What we know:
Mean pLDDT: 78
Number of helices: 12
Distance between the termini: 85 Å
Shape: globular
Strand content: 5-15%
Radius of gyration: 23 Å
Structural class: mainly alpha
Helix content: 40-55%
Amino acid sequence: xxxxxxxxxxxxxxxxxxxxxxxxxxxxxxxxxxxxxxxxxxxxxxxxxxxxxxxxxxxxxxxxxxxxxxxxxxxxxxxxxxxxxxxxxxxxxxxxxxxxxxxxxxxxxxxxxxxxxxxxxxxxxxxxxxxxxxxxxxxxxxxxxxxxxxxxxxxxxxxxxxxxxxxxxxxxxxxxxxxxxxxxxxxxxxxxxxxxxxxxxxxxxxxxxxxxxxxxxxxxxx
Length: 222
């Protein structure tokens, strides 16, 4: 009697599971005028970490995170996960924090310390910035007192070929102010999705133009 009841419950569970899967498939499908079925494009925020941040996904500690993989969480998730970088640094922190930083905090901090130990001869061109990818923009441009400017006013103040794209990308990564942008490194910005080399160069020109109105408070190596 108990066995028959268990089998009935299992069959009912499987039916509900199949029905739920069908509803998801139906929700994600679209029919064209020709009657062909195509899949809807999944919004960026609903895509898994494995797709949106493949580099960060490589630091997923498989042993400590048994039963959960990078294909099961989103980049904006507050879930705390064990991470293990290539250099052996172990950390237990939210997915959201890891993706926003762009990787291991120990590796990033060590790289910044190494950059700070060496004087930079040139801080003028976009190529100079690429050579000093782990240096904060704030330090690269030698700025201490950052003007209080919203990112929208900074990027969309004037027209430009890629300004709308740049603004959307920065907002996606929660860069909402001029100060927040200057606290980033080129290494972090270069990993932003949909921010190609042309947009990166345009962003550099925007920063250079804006900071030319404010004289630097310190000089490199000084």
